[in-house]
């Protein structure tokens, strides 16, 4: 059923937000694109589309296929997240919007949105630049109105990260920046009964927090238990761990190797196109994050036109039994890639 927020026009939403003293941000679309920019002195040009297409596979649902030959080491495309959030251990260590680490080359503007009244709950966060302050308003204008102590403590004590992403998405929906069904295109996970019971407690905390913030009922009409479980089920199986490696596009092979065995996750994010990449224990492509949450996908070897691009969801250095166990329990499928079928 369509929620009340989605049925309202943009102008109606904006009038309602203004009555609640929430400044509605300009609506924007999130896109994935690749291609070189214009050279110095050249007129600006639109980047070309990435050399990929999304299509149905014979046995694994949707997949990503090459529309031309792709050379080893080629940057296939970049993608900005639909939703991203710092990990609890990095809340004060990375940009609250793009997840760039503190102390990097980006300029520090403030530990809070400069020059703005944070209201009755002045929890400050780091934003690495003015270019992150403005887009952060799609969730922060709403988030800062509420007291998140109970919800955040619940997540921290249980080591939960995905409910924080749901919280951010809910704030984006309330602000009118995105529709409530933003992540419906992503594949959902099958959830065990114990997970559903835990989600009910998290949902109750989330809705209670918004209600205490005195938001109008119409603004949170979408926030039902069904919506919460639907979103969390999709985030759980589609979220990427953001592990910043630094460097440049040319260093991606070295960067990929540096990640093995490391624990450098600064947060989690979900994306549109990257979520369509299927798994292979001997992948031909790899996703790396250089200095923020923008995902960079690069070919690990030559890829032929029409060939499916596949990434490895787990640590490919594990043995066959360990890989199969993690993929079955964490992703809900048995891997039948050539490497697994060969017994490697």
UniProtKB/TrEMBL annotation:
SMART domains: SET. Residues 24-51 are annotated as: Disordered. GO terms for cellular component: nucleus. InterPro entries: H3K4_H4K5_MeTrfase (IPR050869), SET_dom (IPR001214), SET_dom_sf (IPR046341). Residues 50-314 form the SET domain. CDD domains: SET_SMYD (cd20071). It holds the Pfam family SET. It comes from the Eukaryota. This is Histone-lysine N-methyltransferase ATXR4 isoform X2. It comes from Ananas comosus. The lineage of its organism: Eukaryota, Viridiplantae, Streptophyta, Embryophyta, Tracheophyta.
